[in-house]
Amino acid sequence: MFEFEYSYLLLVMIILMALLYSSVGHGGASGYLAAMALFGLAPETMKPAALMMNIFVSALVLWRLSRAGYFNWPLFWPIIIGSIPMAFIGGMLVIGVDLYRIIVGLALLLAAIYMIFRVPSHEQVRPVKTLWAVFIGAILGFVAGLTGVGGGIYLSPLLLFLRWTTMRGSAAISAGFILVNSIAGLSGYLIVATDIPAGIPMMVVCAFIGALIGSELAVRRATPGLLRRLLGLVLVVAGIKMILIA
Hints:
By secondary structure, this protein is mostly helical. It has one domain (7-245). The chain has helices at 7-22, 29-38, 43-67, 73-92, 97-116, 130-147, 152-161, 167-192, 200-220, 225-245. Helix 1 (7-22) runs parallel beside helix 9 and helix 7 (152-161) runs antiparallel to helix 8 (167-192).
């Protein structure tokens, strides 16, 4: 089944990561990568595992937020026009283990900054600049496909900083962004990979269980600041570990 020690503790961590991330509209890839990094999983397992968990969790979150009326199609389309082809290309690329660890380590540290120092939401939104939206989608889509990080954790603060949407609006857009990029990235990965590593289906089940609870929080209430900061500290530790191992 699993090829690493303390597998049950890892599954518990995945449930908690999915719960916390889905509560703010994210798929949780950076959290899953952090947990897998702490347990020393190989990059060839980490990337497809994060992408597959992202797909199931973000699909659930998107469905819940869309039903609640928070999804904005005019903002979503230009972002994914740029992101989908770049996520597919990133998913096809196979990079060295050391470089992968450095890139993911830096991605986790950036994600930690967002979780610890969250960008405030503004109710008064500004018009979307289409070309900028396409460009942002392309950059984040490529990173998503390359590393397995869905990109939503970077998209949310950007949307709020640019005042293109509100807090729950950014959560809905991020969930859709993560979903399509993760599908594109996994598609690119499956073209060059021979199979899916063992143990990933159980991780997906655990992530979905956590998302069932987290998506309810995403619709009805905000995630407590203390929990977000604790999660940020976990990302810091995992990010440093990834970089130092490289």
